[in-house]
Amino acid sequence: MERLCGPERPFWEANLTFHADRPDLPECFQLTVLSWLPCICLWAASPLYLLYLKRNNRGYIMMSIVNRLKTAFGLLLWIVCWADLFYTIHQRKEFSPPPVYYVTPLVLGMTMLLATFLIQLERLRGVQSSGVLFIFWFLSVLCAIVPFRSKILQASSQVSSNAFQLTTFYLYFGLIVCELILCCFNEKPPLFSSVVTDPNPCPENTAGFLSTITFWWFTRMAIKGYKKPLEAKDLWSLNQRDSSKNMVPKLLLEWDRELAKAKRYSLGQYWSILFKLPEEGEVLLSSRKAPSRQPSFMRALVKAFGPYFLIGSAFKLLQDVITFVNPQLLRMLISFIKQKGVPDWWGYALAFLMFFTAVLQTLILHQHFQYCFVTGMNVRTAIIGAIYRKVLPLPEQSALVHRGEVVNLMSVDAQRFMDLTTFLNMLWSAPIQIMLALYFLWQNLGPSVLAGVAVMILLIPLNAFIAMKTRAFQVEQMQYKDERIKLMNEILNGIKVLKLYAWEKSFIQKVLAIRQKELNVLRKTAILGALSTMAWTSAPFMVALTTFAVYVTVDENNVLDAEKAFVSLSLFNILRFPLNMLPQVISSLVQASVSLKRIQSFLSHNELDPESVDKKGPGTEFAVTVINGMFTWDRQDPPVLHSINMMVPQGSLLAVVGHVGCGKSSLISALLGEMEKTEGDVSVRGSVAYVPQQAWIQNASLRDNILFGKALDECKYRSVLEACALTPDLEVLPGGDMTEIGEKGINLSGGQRQRVSLARALYSDADVYLLDDPLSAVDSHVAKHIFDNLIGPEGALKGKTRILVTHGITFLPQVHNIMVMVEGRVSEMGSYQELLKQNGAFAEFLRNYTLEDIIEEDEANGKAEEEELFPEDALSNHTDIVASEPTINEAKRSFLRQISIISADGEGMRCRSVKRSSCSQRKHMEAQEKKKPQEVDKLIQAETAETGKVKVTVYLEYAKAVGLVLSVVICLLYGCQSAAAIGANVWLSDWTNDAATNRTQERVNMRVGVYAALGIAQGILVMISSLTLYMGNVGAARKLHFNLVTNKLHTPQSFYDTTPIGRIINRFSKDVYVIDEALPATVLMFLGTFFVSLSTLIVIVSSTPIFAVVVVPLIFVYIFVQRFYVATSRQLKRLESVSRSPIYSHFSETITGSSVIRAYGRESAFVRMSDSKVDDNQKSYYRVLWLGVRIEFIGNCIVLFAALFAVTGKESLSPGLVGLSVSYALQVHYERLARCMSKNDKQISAPWEIQDKKPPPDWPTQGNVQFKDYSVRYREGLDLVLKNLSISVTGGEKIGIVGRTGAGKSSMTLCLFDCELTGLYYQSEPQLCFTPRAQEPVLFSGTLRMNLDPFDAYSDEEVWKVLQHAHLHKFVSNQPAQLLLECAEGGENLSMGQRQLVCLARALLRKSRILILDEATASIDLETDDLIQSTIRTQFEECTVFTIAHRLNTIMDYTRVLVLDKGKIAEFDTPTNLLSKRGIFYGMAKDAGLV
């Protein structure tokens, strides 16, 4: 340095810097270190920054005034620096200046040119605010302050100085200050950027550097959230880079590479075995599978998200290093307090250095958290997207697609990854922090530290044991959770059956049994958690105790003074966090590894083979061809269809008939590619439209369901409605075709749903139509209309290839070919006439069952042309005499008139009449347009989020669930534990003061003993308090879940009609997870942090009482900021919870309709819908570190004031007290306390959802049925659905109930159960009980026996007997498991007809005095139907039977028939009398061909 600066300018002068009252730095130091430091930083960062700018081009920014000024000032700075250089060269004539005067201006000038170049390059690359240049200008100003002060001091002391260089320096200083100020302003967004086009862009994208590091950009949202509760529309759009559109493909690309790699490896191993040992290889390969390598989902995640996450890791490393600066500053502060006669500015400088270090640490740490959190968010988005995309190509019957299990993958498992990423860096950061802490401790206390290390090493096996056991419990708990969610999903899907059979109790017991197992595991986990908490709380103390004890006892010369004790203690406190976090992160890692395996295993499963059906071959005369086809649902299962050979000519209509369970629907599935093809070839030419047996309806408008993503062609659309007999329904529905249809088509009758499904197929204008029994859900009149106008030879589909599965043999003479199936094989095939000529089993069947009906129908049709006995309008009203009343009853039509919505893109509620069209019937359109708009509510209300503060009652509710006494005890225990901790540290402070009086050796044993006793007492109290808290939380989890289950299963049916299942499942999955796992951990952390913060304030105030003056305003600011933030974050949490349900609802809907979605090729559209729902949910996830930065700043102020007051009170304070006070200030985490409070507020919103109103007690069922002036409505404010009903039915009567749509048929039967209706007047006589049989067959996963008799109330003999009556005896006895045959979720391993027969058997088993049948045999062939009708007549001879019927022939021999019309009794008499009256019933019978 002497050569650089010259001999008369030394590089360092200690006396000038440290031992003067007006300290200064030497000129050489100023000209070298202070001048070069910013330049070195910029030159070092520029290569990486240039590379970053090259790769990230955000667009072009127009040159603004700010940019022009920055550039101009940059060029001026270059001129100033070079003017300085030329002036020095000019001075050589007079004297020879040292080299530093040439080098420094040259370096500065070159750096200013680089900075100016970067200013322009950033503008061209669309950078609105530069962090690199901000740091450079900030460092430049910081380093120039000392020379600036020096030059002012020189001028004031009138020391001669060079006027030119003084002027250039002042110019230089002024310009860099201007550059720093200009750097704080943002540039405009780049041209054509998304920020310009987005209506509500997130300000984070355009935030400046300062705004980004302090999270100032979020302030606007915090203010808005404080003023009024936030709503979904207030949320900013999701950043483009975080959207599903970007994140999911990123992960799937890496996952596909992993799959390909695993496949290549397996093939390589296969061939290597075969080539190495040809003969033995074949034997080996035949005896075992070729070795396979599992694709690694972890590797895919790391490759996709690792690079971004590494930026956060870099911040963490920087923060770790800075963490150890403050203990060194504390050492210097205590040293300063001990020394007499040192300048006061030392102390103040140390206090401010501690403050600035703490602020820097806060900013860096929060940047690390931000990067980690965004990574976690991206991982969650990508995992949910990947799972959704995986579900679409999985077959519906796949064992994998258990809704509960997959919902858990999407909610709990994806969430685990998100939570883990926040602290994942602790895996490497914790060991680094531990090593650095031990290094500084070694310097402080020497080899005695080894004793502390030994304690830490001894704790490792304990933590390892806890982590291992936690992992095992985690796996077990997830299995129970899956089981519980799966069962809940089934219960909610079949809730109506449960309620009608009063089976709630049995199923509640089943759920609670699983829940009990789950809670047992939770209890074990709680004990481990308490052990773990004790270990990490006591670890730093045990390390400190052993270290101090060894230090003072090994050598008499070792004195434990304040400097050694409190610097060591602050290092031990730094150790506390890594020692605490490491086991937790390992435990989270363990949990995530369980989730990882589950996700990996799910994503690795085989999908449907898209090539199993050939769709691309050359066109032939045959549209559908199957040659030697053999199909199964699963490769492991035996084939379901054997030797299928069929060739369907282009444009022909093929009918597929056969008994229940013979494989008709399986054949359709095979043609769609939904089954595994084990042999043969299948080809389908052209596009496909599919109508499933159970209509799949989306939660959207009726029009959207029909268009199904296609553009609206008004003329075509009208003709489709006409063909599907939907035009009259538009008059019934309040919003016409814009009526919202609830989840699963909840507010349409079965017939309407099936017709919407048919309309969807017709509108799609496909080449091949696969129709799986579409006419079963509609009555005979509508079926005839649909066949004539749509399916038949003269229907809208003539010329198209149609394959129709049907039980309605009335239409068979009109089809081109008939295929008869028997037990999975084709038994006969040919035209109607050919099959009759063959005189086989089919011909015999036809003769027995249908010849008369067909003749009668032909006659009826002939007569109808000649005579018109009543006006046309009376008949036209019968277009939908749907007696198929499914999950929702007939009265719903009236309900709908009131509450269905007609919404366009979710905007305000408005009615919309259907547009006039030239191709529609003018008369109908006029009627439509005359309909007045009416105010209507949404059927399925959007889930609402509570607003405002979490009410005290909610906290009390949770405290009650824990137990009020227990809650108080827990708080007391935490208080005692904090008191023990303070006592130990105060005792240590007193112990260190012994050093000053040279009495260190006198009381060593006593000092160590008391210190140990206090510490051990703290450890024991921690253990007890944690265990008590965990056990209290387990108790609360049990109570809250019990309340939720019992409440939900006793809620009226109308709740389920208007609430999507996804929303209820959300309560049972995510919210119960919060109560079980998240809330206890948060409460534990909150209590711990609260008492630590409280004890800190107590210690500092007692050490330096003047601190109390500062405490009050700081606490005030703290409470203000915290409340400001919590108001916003609480609402964000609620909005997040509300926007989560649609993800699961849509997901559930997708699983149910996956075969339809695949058939129409709509996968990509559904993926986009799912992505948008996930993105909407992610918008609420502002894990804002806004609060953290502000609250920790308050904590940093506490450090500053504690140190400042220690300096001012230097004379009166002992070093021990200063050490105690400042070391306590350094360890406080107010931010963690505030976050816990906000978390508590947010998490407590979860149990809040569970508090709900209890439904009224069950109405007792009894009596010969008598209605007297009975009127009923769904709820207050709605129209009556039944009006003044008066009928009397005596025991044993058989009553048929018929009527047009909206007549109130199902409402009347539901009144008997008091399921959801409250009558104005009702009277029943003593009766045993009712047995319902709803139209939609609902089965639960479990054994067949459980489905028939969940309470085990009947013997096996009785069960077999009813199976015989229901004609299921043969099927069940052929099964290996017989009565213990496992039914899949929803009974999907049985055909639709078999499911209906099981439900019928269930009704027969109960042998009730009243039987209610709601179209019990719609999906059953005529032969079986006939047998069942005779069973009902014989087995229920003495019972009262109410039947809502489609096939009028089934009720023609009933005692009486009740005809309902608009909620009133139109006709009520014997069938014979009603026919003779020639009223409504006669018209219906005529349509059905019965008269």
Please describe what this structure looks like:
The longest helix is centred in the middle third of the chain and has 51 residues. 62% of the residues lie in helices and 8% in strands. The chain contains 52 helices and 21 strands. The protein has a 6-stranded mixed beta sheet with strand order 5-6-7-3-8-9, with helices on both faces. A 6-stranded mixed beta sheet has the order 15-18-19-12-20-21, with helices on both faces. The relative contact order is 0.08. By secondary structure, the protein is of the alpha/beta class. About 10% of the residues have low confidence. InterPro entries: AAA+_ATPase, ABC1_TM_dom, ABC1_TM_sf, ABC_transporter-like_ATP-bd, ABC_transporter-like_CS, ABC_transporter_C-like, MRP, P-loop_NTPase.
